[in-house]
Structures are given as C-alpha cells and as structure tokens.
Amino acid sequence: MSAKRTLLAFVISTILFAACGKLIPTDGRIDIIPLPGKVTSNEGHFVLKSSTKIIPTFEAEGMQNALAFWNDVMLDVLGQELIVEPGAKSQSGNITIVQDGTLGAEAYRLKIDKSGMQIAASTAGGAFYAFQTLRQMLPTAAFTEAGGRIEIPACEIEDAPHFEYRGFMFDMGRHIFSVQEVKDMIDILAMHKINKFHWHLTEDQGWRIEIKKYPKLTEVGAWRDSKVLGWGDVKPDGQRYGGYYTRKDVKEIVEYAKERFIEIVPEVDIPGHSQAAVASYPEFLACDPENKHEVWLWQGVSPDVINVANPKAVQFAKDVIDELTEMFPFGYIHLGGDECPTSKWERNSDCQALLKEIGSTNYRDLQIHFYKQLKEHIAQKPADKQRKLIFWNEVLHGNTEPLGTDIAIMAWIGADRAAEVAASRGMTTILSPQIPYYINRRQSNLPTEPRSQGHGTETVEAVYNYIPMKGVAEKLQKQYLGVQANFWTEWVEDAST
Fold this sequence. Notes:
alpha/beta, 8-stranded parallel β-sheet
C-alpha cells in the first residue's frame, strides 16, 4: 500500500471512529430503585448511539414531556438529542413506544435486546417511568465520560405502582430553599417514581408563599430574627432570616413538576403551627391581640394558634384556599391539623361561647368546626375548582363535629392504628409513619452523625423494609391511598446540610 493510500485509510478510520465515539460498556447489572415488579435478565445488550431514533406509535397527553425528559438525558450522555419520528415504521436499532390498553396508567413493560428497545404503556406516564428505569440502567461512566455509544443490558421488565399516592413532603416553614433546589428535589422524586410532592409552605417559624389579599404574610410572616432555631443548648442567633415564593416562582415550579408527572400538594398548616400568620395579622388571627406576636424563633410547638371563633379568621382561611386553588391545578390541598394546642382557645371568651354553641365540651371540636366551614366553602366552588382536603391524623380526635368521609387522613403518629381508624370510618388514608418515614432523622447513633431529630432509627434499610398495611383487613385496604416520606428542616438550614 502506498504512503498516500495508507494516510487516506488512516484519515477515514479516524473519522469513522470519531463518528461512532467511544464505547461505554455495560457491567450487566440491573440495579433499579424502587425494584420493579418483575425483572428478567437476558444474554447480550443493546448499543445506544446518536443514530438511535425514538418512535412513538401513539399520541397521549404528556408524551412530549416524556420524550423531552429522555432527550435531556441524551444531551448529558451523548451530547445530542435523539431524532423523534412519531408513527414511523419500526426498525432495528431504535426505541419504539407502543400502546397497550391492558396496562395501568403508570405501568409499563420494557424489552431490550440487541435489535432495539420497546416500551409498552397505556399512557405517557407509563412511558415516562420506563424512561426513568432506563436512565438508572445506563452505566455510571456514561455520565462522567465522553462517549458516543452506550451498552444497555438485554432484559425484560414489567412494573406497576402498588399505590396511587406515592409522596414526599419537603418542609419550607423552618428553612426555605431556592427555586432551583426545589426543582432538584423534584428531579430526584421523579427518578424514584414518586408522583406527589407535598410542599409544606407555612409554619410557626415562617410563611413562605405569596397571598395577594394578605401581603403582610410575606412582609412580616416570612421573616424572623434568627436563622438557627432554638432548641436545648442552641439559642437564637439574632440573624435576620427568611424568604418566600412569589406567584411567578410557584408557577415555574408547578410547570416543572407537571412536566415530570408529579402533582404538588400544597400545605398551609392552620389553625395550629400558625404563629407566623398570627404575627402578620394579630388583630383578627390572635386569641389575644393585645399581646405582642412575632414569628417564632424556636423549634417545637407554639401555643399561638389562630382564633377560630373570629369570623375574620375564618374568612382569611377561605381566601387563602381560594388563592391556593388558583396557583395549584391539582387534586389536593393539605390544611395540616397536627399539634394544635387549645390553651389559648380555653382562655378566650369568643372560643368559649362558640364551643357552647356547637354543643361540645371538647375544645378540639373548635378545630373540626373550623375545618367544616372551609370544606363547605370548597363544596360551593365550580367543579374545576374542587379540591380534596388532607389532614394529619389528629383531626380524628373531635367528639361532636365529624368532618365526613370525603377527606384524606395522613397518618403519622400511631400511624398504623390511626390509618386503620380512618379507613374504618370510610375515609381514605395515607401512611406516613414517623418511624421510619421521617427521613430527616439520624441514620445511626454514631457521634459523627449531624445534629438532627430522632434516635437513629430511620435508616435506608428500615425505610425499605417497612411493609404498609401489614395485617390490615382486606375490606379496609381499598381505603389506603398510599404512602409518604417526610423531610422536616428544623436542623437543616440549607441544601448543603
């Protein structure tokens, strides 16, 4: 071969190698969290490359979001998006999405062999979760090395969620996180096929969402005079701290979640855990407006609750719900209901009179009466503005003012028993047991653990091994909507901690 022909061959082979790119091999492992219902490993692998096409054979609401997610991954690992050819004839080497009406709304089947990949789903949501599984199957090196071809192990996977509601709660009341940090959390939830983001937006220690009708909630209630929250030997530090989400922020986060098939459940915790709100409008929210009220600087439970006997306080709650309904186009609103002291109601003449009027001697019934008025307000709205209310399980403690069965109970304290009580009364229930689902707690009792709540019982192993509905009678199981993990931020001041 002449020197000229040798040089030409070298140039051509170099171009071809550059076009194909480095091959990143699979290690053959299929490690997916949560573990799919059925995984069958087969011999061989599929090679994903820039020439691979995505062929969706049916249209469905949200399909563009599912495809956009996968192409964002492709930008990371291949440096370019894959070509999407809807309805094209299936051919070797591509990713084909087919519709199977026998599968549930979030279920999918995934088949991978050397000739290509096929995703079967009945909805775009199923396709999205198949793509989430595929993302976890990519070799780690695909995200750290420049490569033009990626091996994915041959397998067949069938998966469907056990529960309709799979939630995660993020507490913004104690410490607030940026819009980008909230988006990052939503991405993590989507990767793990969590479909509900419970956004805890208000607390004694801060009100975090803009309500146009009540501007002092963010002018006053969103700020406090300490970043650290006092507890034990930890004292408030005097640092001005706070912040809130504007309407624009909320709209951005809502759209981001919708694109990832996640519904947001906003929580405004009333009438307890409401000192930030009371400090903003003490003239009608406080049981003792003559006294000084400020956003709380401590952990724990404040006794400064909303005066539920004041008609202006009831109207305040209705107005807040109206604005939440406009901002969050989803099915649920959470109104808290946990840890609501009654001591100030017991010393307030209007609350005493209202308790007598409703025919009760249990001050807890004032809280239930308050919620009934809010439920009736929601019931009068047009169908597209209807929302189902969620409460923590303390609302089961009223005597004479039952809230009805058209609510959901989030069971956290004595969770298994509380959920069973709610289900037996005809309510839907969500299991959120503080042990082991309060994942802000210590992972062990080692002295190297950061300061936090809990006793080192909420380990990954404990969370994964918890069996929801264990021992629950079959006739009650249909009332169990799902499960939720919670992340409270008393000790978590920013994303780095």
